[in-house]
Design brief:
The structure holds three protein chains of three kinds.
Chain A lengths: L5 H48 L4 E10 L2 H4 L6 H6 L2 H12 L6 H8 L6 H11 L7 E7 L2 H12 L10 H12 L3 E5 L2 H4 L12 H32 L4 H13 L4 H15 L7 H25 L3 H9 L4 H29 L3 H5 L20 H9 L4 H32 L4
Antiparallel strand pairs in A: 1-2, 1-3
Chain B lengths: L7 H4 L5 H13 L4 E2 L6 E12 L2 E12 L3 E5 L6 H7 L10 E9 L2 E2 L7 H7 E4 L10 H12 L5 H14 L3 H4 L12 H13 L5 E5 L7 H14 L4 E5 L3 H7 L2 E6 L2 E7 H6 L4 H7 L5
Parallel strand pairs in B: 1-11, 4-9, 4-10, 7-8, 8-9
Antiparallel strand pairs in B: 2-3, 2-5, 5-6, 10-11
Chain C lengths: L2 H30 L9 H38 L7 H16 L8 H38 L7 H17 L1 H23 L2 H6 L3 E2 L14 E2 L2 H32 L2 H16 L2 H22 L9 H26 L2 H9 L4 H30 L2 H6 L17 H9 L8 H35 L1
Antiparallel strand pairs in C: 1-2
Helix pairs in contact in C: 1-2, 1-4, 2-4, 2-5, 3-4, 6-16, 8-11, 8-13, 9-11, 10-11, 11-13, 12-13, 13-16, 15-16
Classes of the chains: A mainly alpha, B alpha/beta, C mainly alpha.
């Protein structure tokens, strides 16, 4: 048996010290690098989205001198019926030709007409409907520019040789003229918040999707919060320790990790095909999201019930309160802040969810703002998905802007959950 | 983290009034350590050590020598700072962010606190056994081999085997575990686990072994076995042991240091401390007036 | 009567019932000398009456709403003299009848359809009335019945509480119903699919092209349903994701738990958690528009040909998404390792990293493995990123720069849009869903079990 002396041991330890300390430094460096990677990913993601999307909050308008000429419009007087088929497009074209008198030839004219959004005639119709006196008059009107014009104008401010896309040299020339004359201006893009979806980027907005999200979340909250809290109360305060309870628990934990798209399949097969509920409706979306968020809410509610010390229950029980009274009079109010926090986090999760809603047909092209939970609707994340698929460059901008809105709402929800927890947290 | 000591005035509310008065009085009395804190052949030498946790001071101006191949026991009421003091001796307090140590500590006359001192070889020289047995969740063999492996002490597998066997023998565990070296260390009984931890500590050939209440989690029989072991280890190692049991201090140590609220009150031969304490606080503690 | 109106009326009745029960109890108490003589507090008598009034009526109404469509359809279809044999034609006819009944006329309907539509309208209005009438009668009747049973000795509280208890049990069972619902919905459709396509072909076939021709004489009339390219595609994207997420997530967790100062932790932890809160559709957009072109250009720069929908781009972004998942789970398990083990290692002279690598991580390994398994299950089931950034082409390839497709992508493509419910194409989506559900189920089950056992070890 070799027996090393302490001196030998000391020497051997000394010999390896340098390389061990180097390894320590490398390991630590890897840790810092990992954190940096994560933080950087957040920064890049946000910077990328903001850089792409902030442009969508402004929109170019073109000022034209519009003459509400009854001859061009093809109407005699202003009433509901005549307005529906009045030729406002013609009026706009007329105005464009007047503004650029030297334009000739079909191709050239077509380019000229494409300066203004195809939604502009509806704006004129609304103006005339609001003020029938305008018929036969001339006024200067700011009309929404086409998305290609808008994209071009926005890229001008970045650098001189902007993004051309479908903008020809000729069009660029007109745009320059308009800009110099102050007849093309950028303004806050209110369409984005007041309109529903549209094939034309300059008219597309998130209002319908926002309202759809709101309805869907409402259904989800109304169902998942009471059911989740009730389930948590049963499991935490009543359930006997037996196989059935174990089964429920395993189920809940497992459901929390089931891919969301599987819930979509469930919704499609059961709610839509079996129960014949309406497709694309917030009601079904809400039901699917309820099933999906339920595990989250149950788990967080149980945690906050667990945090209520047993002494409170014993004290109430000692006064002769029934089990139900103990729970509803004492435990539940104390656990409520935690449950609410969990519910907000669950709702934030539901708000960002896309895949299961694709399954139940919430991908339809919805222009109208839904009025109830059975109207066809879409939600914000699905709207983002739909726009992301569109080829127009202007939609990239709008997709990013919609993402910014979605992220702001989510951050607000999570921040309020954190705030709520900080404010109402009770230390025992 | 060990329980920290606050100044008497801060710790007061929970104590009965008479005692509080006494401790406040004692503050003035314990400025100087009575007895013989120093010795000629010192392995570890402490001079004017102060320890702070953030703002609170846990150790006040402690000076003490621990002689070569002797067992020094540190006793005192709980929260008196004896564990904190022990952890200064191999710089385990470094792991606690808010902890700050002042004063001089030397090992073989070399300072252990200093900008150039590397704690890695220091801790190999000053090993430590903790209050609760803390074997790693590895096999018995790997537990003992852990230190030699990380330090690169063994150059061959056979050498490592020798070190493991030697250490286990010295810890008096070899005969009990030689048949099951590949079984997890956590499967041993409490007393065996603590002896495994001692074997683990001596596997890196330390010069000093610090023991922080090594028997507090053990039953009397396991305790007796460890105490025997400490006595045997004295031949080769210098040992500082913190204990809450006065009987244990009396049985295993040559010298005993009595700590009170972060002050070192008295150091003397163990026999003197237990039969003829010189400081009234020591006497009060020994005779069981508080603890 | 409109359903919301009916609900409102029912609610009103319930409130009235509560009030009546309550006053009844109070009057009875006053008559006999104080509340002390009642078996329960007046509010429990109120609740007792309200439950009798509301609960059965509500259950009836719910059942009615669920089943009436099916029954009405059966009645209408049965009334037709000559109805088509094929189910799909029946569906078509039914849709036509519904349209006619709703007044969406496109030209003149056939007389038979018109008659059926009239029948449908009539049936609907009758059932609507019967439904409303029956619900309200039951509510009022049972409410009155419970009032008749009133006596001061009635143990209203016990009865109310036992009903509420059953309600709680039912809510707790929602999780079980959901699982059963998932299983039933994917299982039945899958069985129908395996009827048309042999399960061996599905599991082992190397060719996937689900485009079924509409007519038998078209080219490629029989689609191919070999799901192996989907499985390998899913595995590749998940593997890339784990390749990013596990080291980065684990090292972040280690750094945060073992090294970072409080200030760094308070900053970095929430920032990493932001990654977990970003909706997957956002990651998908980021992957498709920013990362995929970047990967393509980077590959081109070193002379490689990368698809613009490369598995690498989707996998990388998915990895970033999963980082916080791995790191927070690992953080939990690393923190659960007792400090005494760290002290033991440090006391022997280990460096900090040796302590972590040789003691803390091995001790936390089961928990970490469980967390990683959960992360894998998450990667496999992730949908939006791959739908938006990975392709549709079912390539059987091992090159991460190629475009691959995954199980989830195919489920989405097969089911989005209007589909006939009995074509193998649609049913294939459910078979894929079944595979997905079973795989993640097994992974989750193992992972949760491992983590649970780990927690018990240090509790």
């Amino acid at each position: 048996m070799t027996d090393l002396t302490q001196q030998q041991v000391r020497e051997r330890i000394e010999r390896r010290l340098a390389s061990r300390h180097l390894k320590e430094k490398i390991f630590r460096g890897l840790g810092i690098a990992s954190i940096a990677f994560g933080v950087l990913a957040v920064a890049i993601l946000f910077a990328d989205i903001i850089a792409k999307g902030s442009g969508a909050f402004v929109q170019s308008d073109i000022q034209l001198e519009i003459t509400y000429d009854p001859a061009v419009l093809g109407i005699e007087q202003v009433d509901q019926e005549s307005l529906t088929w009045a030729n406002f497009t013609g009026v706009i074209r007329e105005a464009l030709r007047e503004r650029f008198p030297d334009v000739s030839g079909r191709a050239e004219k077509r380019e000229l007409y494409s300066l203004v959004s195809t939604g502009a005639p509806f704006a004129l119709r609304d103006r005339l409907a609001a003020d029938p006196e305008l018929l036969g008059q001339t006024e200067k009107v700011w009309l929404t520019a086409d998305d290609d014009v808008d994209t071009f104008v926005k890229s001008l401010s970045d650098s001189r040789n902007g993004f051309r896309g479908r903008t020809s040299d000729r069009m660029a020339g007109w745009i320059d003229q308009l800009l110099v004359a102050g007849e093309l201006k950028k303004r806050f893009n209110s369409n984005f918040f007041t309109n529903g979806d549209s094939r034309e980027p300059e008219q597309a907005g998130i209002r319908a999707a926002l309202v759809g999200s709101l309805f869907t979340l409402l259904v989800t909250l109304m169902l998942s919060f009471p059911i989740g809290v009730a389930a948590a109360i049963y499991l935490e305060e009543y359930a006997p320790r037996n196989r059935w309870t174990d089964l429920i628990e395993v189920n809940i934990n497992n459901l929390a990790a089931v891919p969301s798209i599987v819930f979509g399949l469930l919704g499609l097969a059961i709610f839509i095909n079996f129960f014949e509920m309406p497709r694309s409706a917030p009601l079904v979306g809400g039901l699917v999201l309820t099933l999906m968020t339920l595990p989250t809410i149950i788990i967080s509610s149980r945690a906050s019930l667990k945090a209520v010390p047993p002494s409170i229950r014993e004290a109430a029980m000692g006064m002769g309160a029934s089990r139900m009274q103990v729970v509803f009079h004492h435990v539940l109010p104390l656990a409520m802040p935690g449950m609410l926090t969990g519910a907000i986090i669950g709702m934030a999760q539901a708000l960002g969810e896309t895949a299961p809603l694709l399954m139940i047909g919430m991908v339809a092209f919805i222009v109208d703002v839904p009025h109830g939970i059975t109207d066809p609707a879409t939600v914000l994340p699905v709207q983002i998905f739909l726009w992301a698929d569109s080829p127009e460059r202007a939609f990239v901008e709008r997709t990013s802007a919609a993402i910014m809105v979605l992220l702001s709402v989510l951050i607000a929800m999570n921040a309020s959950a954190v705030w709520l927890r900080k404010k109402l947290e009770r230390r025992w | 983290m060990n329980t920290m000591t606050l100044d008497a005035g801060h710790a007061a509310p929970a104590q009965p009034e008479s005692l509080e008065k006494e401790t406040v009085d004692s503050q003035t009395k314990v400025r100087e350590t009575v007895g013989q804190p120093f010795c000629d052949d010192a392995k570890l030498r402490m001079r004017g050590v102060n320890v702070f946790y953030g703002e609170a001071q846990a150790i006040h101006e402690v000076s003490l020598d621990i002689g070569r191949n002797e067992v020094v026991a540190m006793i005192g009421p709980s929260g008196c700072g004896k564990s904190t003091f022990l952890r200064c001796l191999n710089r385990m307090n470094d792991t606690i962010d808010s902890c700050r140590v002042e004063g001089e500590v030397t090992l073989d006359d070399e300072p252990i606190y200093g900008p150039k001192v590397d704690v890695v070889p220091l801790r190999a020289r000053v090993g430590m056994v903790f209050q609760k047995p803390n074997p790693f969740p590895k096999s018995i063999y790997d537990n003992v081999a852990y230190g030699p492996k990380i330090h690169g002490i063994a150059s061959r597998r056979a050498e490592l085997d020798d070190i493991v066997e030697n250490s286990l023998r010295r810890a008096g565990l070899w005969n009990e575990v030689k048949e099951r070296l590949d079984k997890p260390g956590t499967g041993l009984s409490g007393g065996q686990q603590q002896r495994l931890c001692i074997a683990r500590a001596i596997a890196v050939s330390p010069e000093v072994i610090l023991m922080d209440e090594p028997c507090s989690a053990l039953d009397p029989i396991a305790t007796a076995r460890i105490e025997e072991l400490i006595d045997e280890l004295r031949e080769n190692y210098t040992i500082a042991i913190v204990t809450h049991s006065m009987q244990q201090a009396a049985r295993v140590s040559q010298r005993t240091a009595y700590f009170h609220l972060g002050h070192l009150v008295e150091v003397n031969d163990t026999e003197t401390v237990f039969t003829n304490p010189q400081h009234e606080l020591t006497e009060a503690y020994i005779t069981g007036r508080f603890g | 009567m409109q359903t919301p109106t009916l609900f409102a009326l029912l609610l009103l009745l319930v409130l009235v019932a509560y009030g009546t029960g309550f006053t009844r109890a109070v009057t009875a108490a006053r008559g006999s000398g104080g509340l002390r003589n009642l078996a329960s507090l007046p509010s429990y008598y109120g609740l007792y009456t309200a439950l009798w009034c509301g609960l059965p009526a509500l259950l009836l109404l719910a059942a009615w709403l669920v089943f009436d469509d099916g029954i009405i359809r059966a009645m209408v279809m049965n009334s037709l003299a000559d109805k088509p044999a094929a189910l799909s034609d029946q569906n078509l006819l039914w849709a036509q009848i519904q349209n006619v009944a709703a007044g969406n006329l496109f030209g003149e309907p056939e007389p038979q359809v018109a008659a059926a539509a009239a029948h449908l309208t009539e049936l609907r209005s009758t059932t609507g009335m019967v439904q409303a009438g029956l619900t309200l009668v039951i509510a009022a009747g049972l409410g009155a019945f419970s009032l008749l049973r009133f006596s001061p000795q009635l143990r209203a509280r016990e009865k109310v509480e036992s009903v509420l208890r059953w309600v709680l049990v039912a809510c707790a069972c929602a999780a079980i119903f959901t699982t059963v619902g998932i299983l039933l919905s994917v299982l039945f459709e899958s069985l129908r699919f395996f009827h048309a396509v042999p399960i061996t072909e599905f599991l082992f076939g190397l060719h996937w092209s689900p485009q079924m021709a509409l007519r038998a004489d078209q080219v490629g009339s029989s689609g191919a349903f070999g799901a192996v390219p989907l499985f390998t595609g899913t595995m590749m994207v998940s593997a890339i994701a784990m390749f990013v997420a596990v080291p980065v997530g684990l090292m972040s967790a280690i750094y945060l738990a073992e090294y970072a100062s409080k200030r760094v932790r308070n900053f970095a932890k929430p920032v990493l958690e932001i990654l977990a809160g970003v909706p997957t559709v956002v990651y998908g957009f980021f992957a498709a528009l920013t990362v995929a072109p970047f990967v393509r250009d980077a590959a081109a720069a070193i002379g490689l040909q990368a698809s613009s929908e490369s598995a690498l781009a989707a996998g990388l972004v998915m990895g970033v998404m999963i980082i916080p998942f791995v790191s927070s789970l690992s953080d939990d398990v690393i923190n659960a390792v007792p400090q005494s083990l760290r002290d033991g290692a440090l006391g022997l002279g280990s460096t900090h990293s040796e302590t972590v690598r040789k003691v803390v991580i091995p001790a936390a390994l089961p928990g970490i493995v469980g967390g990683v398994l959960l992360a894998v299950s998450r990667a496999i089931g992730e949908t939006m990123i791959v739908v938006m950034a990975a392709g549709l082409a079912a390539n059987l390839t091992a090159n991460p720069l190629d475009s691959v497709t995954t199980v989830t992508v195919q489920i989405v493509t097969l089911l989005v849009g209007d589909q006939e419910f009995d074509s193998p194409k649609t049913l294939a989506a459910f078979a894929l869903g079944l595979m997905l559900f079973l795989t993640t189920l097994v992974l989750n089950f193992i992972a949760l079990h491992v983590v649970k056992k780990y927690r018990e070890q240090y509790d």
